[in-house]
Sequence to fold (323 residues):
Amino acid sequence: MIRTIIVGSGSYLPSKILTNQELAAMVETSDEWIVQRTGIKERRIAAEGELTSDLATIAAERALADAGYTADDIDLIILATATPDHTFPATAVTVQDRLGMHHGAAFDMQAVCSGFVFALATADCYVRTEQARRVLVIGAETFSRILDWSDRTTCVLFGDGAGAVVVEASEQPGEISDRGILTSHLRSDGRHKEKLYVDGGPSATRTVGHLRMEGREVFKHAVSMIADVIEAAFEATGTGPADIDWFVPHQANKRIIDASAKKLGIPQDKVVITVDRHGNTSAASIPLALDEARREGVIGDGQLVLLEAMGGGFTWGSVLVRM
Fold:
């Protein structure tokens, strides 16, 4: 059967580091308060004039180089972002142009923090149905542009960055030992949209708006929703926590990550953590963490990797992939 395999990854972080100590000079907070509640010590902030497309393009170029391909080899670009350069056109077409790709298609996907998981699952559908042979999947965000820097409950959480993977079709035996994406599970429930949202938009207010969040409510739902899609992945593949080599969760909050891993029986030494240095980079967090782990030799070929995310909407999802 055709499987969608990951053949390259890349990432990019802006050079500016914003520490907790610097935030404490801006709003009523402290390094101790932030670390205790989130696990975050610092985050990256895009420079003035540095756009989501800029971050995405660099991550994409690095992923292509890692895979040994050029833009000519790509059929489709899917860019997950909640912070596009413009209302339209899609930021993906800007990246497509900058890569020198003038064929195929490119579009954005909006599922907030779950965006990369949704985009990867979508790429898998294109590949398995033979509508695309090779896809560039990107998660890129400049969340610093939609933060209310006077709101200490949100401005301490988020950062900017981008990550990307190149996936392609591969004939595999059709067994659990196959390389590639083995299963994906996506969910959403609009009843919870006001618990995590941006209070602006072109149709509603004609403004960009700022991120608003009911932190306790998000935390309350996050662990059960994450468990839902991970248990679905285990059931679909006949696997369990013991079979997982690495767990790469959305890097939103270390308390959520720890609670989810504990509930699912995944040991802490199998969990990839970058939230302490990146903050919550929304759709970029998983590909950033995945690329870092690959570059450092932590995640290797043949290993079974579980990806999961939960974000505004609410949206949530999982992908189980053998590298």
Notes: The chain has a mean pLDDT of 98. DSSP finds ten helices and 13 strands in the chain. The chain has two domains: 2-171, 180-322. The CA atoms of residues 40 and 250 lie 13 Å apart.
